[in-house]
Amino acid sequence: MTYCVGMCVDDGLVFLSDTRTNAGVDHVSAARKMAVYEQPGERVIVLLSAGNLALTQAVTQLLAEPTDPDAPTLYSCATMAEAARIVGEAVREVHRRDALSLAEFSVDFNCSFILGGQIHGQPPRLFMVYAAGNFIESTRVSPYFQIGESKYGKPIIDRVITPSSPLDEVAKCALISMDSTLRANLSVGLPLDLLVYEKDALRVTRFATLDNDSTYYQMIHRTWGERLRQIFGEIPNPSWTDLANVPLRPRESRAAVPRLVIGDLPPGADAPAQTRPRRRSPRT
């Protein structure tokens, strides 16, 4: 499992991914989930992946080495929407090739992608591509996407991020979101890849790999936990004053039912000739 998040705001884009791969408790490893396609001055496109590692790597390999040399690529597509269609078609191609074989081994075709970036003369855009190859685009109402273990890191993003949020605040929020996920789920792990893209830069200007030795990430991890406990302690405990609206249900009246107590005999039954159980000799 993994956790990746991409955010699109007025000032640019933020991408964050972990590197944990897990095929069971004895097969925990690391692999990058972020791929960057850059032509300085012309385009920057970032692809995040989650799901079955063999499938996501097959898709990224197909994007790097397309079967049709004349087909458009992420380096030649005219728009970001076309880039999303190229990724979706690569997903479908891998599905056509591998899905039946995987089904024979009861393995689901499980992969998803976040694609974002900017092409010269166009605004930054962000998409999520599903396992069926279809995709959706972020909006100002919902300016981010998550893939993988998304539930633990979602609340902080929903409460903090808006389209007008500065890039540094968005990056900080992404790291807090990741820290909450790392805290709750062992299938997500360090190191992390963080890329912050400034609108109209058309080249990568901010990138970092964060691990246990990263001073800033350790500060995030420590401070966020301390402040959560502090704020939790400052919130007043509930006051129990109103008991008028307790949804009590009246007890049903039932006729008395005779109960058989262990040791009693049912009416009309004869007492056994021997009340004590006979001791049996052990079998040989």
Automatic annotation (TrEMBL):
Recorded coiled-coil stretches: none
Taxonomic lineage: Bacteria, Pseudomonadati, Pseudomonadota, Betaproteobacteria, Burkholderiales
Parts of the chain that traverse the membrane: none
Organism domain of life: Bacteria
Region (Disordered): 263-284
Taxonomic source organism: Candidatus Burkholderia verschuerenii
UniProt cross-references to InterPro entries, sorted A to Z: Ntn_hydrolases_N, UCP009120_prtse
CDD domains: proteasome_beta_bacterial
Protein name: Proteasome-type protease
